Amino acid sequence: MSNPTLPAEGGCRCGKVRFRISAAPLLTMACHCRGCQRMSSSAYSLSAAIAASAFELTQGEAVIGGMHGADRHYFCEHCMTWMFTRPGGIDAFVNCRATLLDETGWFSPFVETYTSTKLSFADTGAAHSFETFPPMEAYEGLINEYVMASK
Predict the structure, then answer these.
(1) What CATH number is associated with residue 130?
(2) Range of the domain at 105
(3) Number of domains making up the chain
(4) Residue 13: alpha-carbon gap to chain centroid
């Protein structure tokens, strides 16, 4: 397990919206929930939780898409690429779609969530698996373990 070379940049499929991360991920994840399956048109979504202060748009504007609920899912208005999520009620981090970074060879999910709706073939190799989301009290330990494993 490793971290991206920082700062790391990425963007949507058409290139109109670009972003930069300036700190290592707090945690990497794969989510198997039906919402992520539908929004990614895949078996799961891949995310890197980035401290909000270390995530910035460097070009273009992102618009809210998805369910328009407490979790704010941001997309490129032109190509509709799902770029990042700001979880409702949690302003400390941004879930960046890790596969949109220009360099992705470092990425592997440390945690997988919603294995209760996981497709039978969708193995991620994640160190930790949860039927839904981990309980809130588990995140501090998961983050600490991820940081230690990433050094």
Answers:
(1) 3.90.1590.10
(2) 8-139
(3) 1
(4) 16
